[in-house]
Amino acid sequence: MRKPSILTKSAFKVLLPVTIGWGAVAVLESLSYIAIALAILGVWPAYTVLLLGCVTIIMTILVSRSGFNVAVSLIDALYSEIINCMTHIKVRWFKAQNQTKLITLMGQHIPSFMAIPAHQLQQFIHAPLIPIVITIGMIWVAGYQIALILAGLLMIALYIQFISQRALLKSDQQRSGSEQKSKHAGQELVDHIELLRSATGCINASKRAEDAWLAQSKALACTNEAAAKSTFYAAVAGALPCLGILIYMLAAGVYSGEYVFVVTLLALRATLPMEALALAALSVNEHTSAIKSYFNVLEAPQLQEPINKQPKQLHNYNMRIDKLTYQPALSCFSTEIEAGTRVLIRGESGVGKSTLLHLLMGFDVPQSGNIQIGSTSLSSITSTQRETLFAYVPQSPVIFNGTIASNIRMSNPTASDEEVEDIAQKMMLTNVISQSPLGINQPVVDGGGQLSGGEKQRIGLAQAILKKAPILILDEATAALDTEVEEVIAKELMQLDCTIIVVSHRNPAIWQAHKTITLAN
Question: Given a cut of 80, is residue 147 above it in pLDDT?
Answer without folding.
Answer: yes
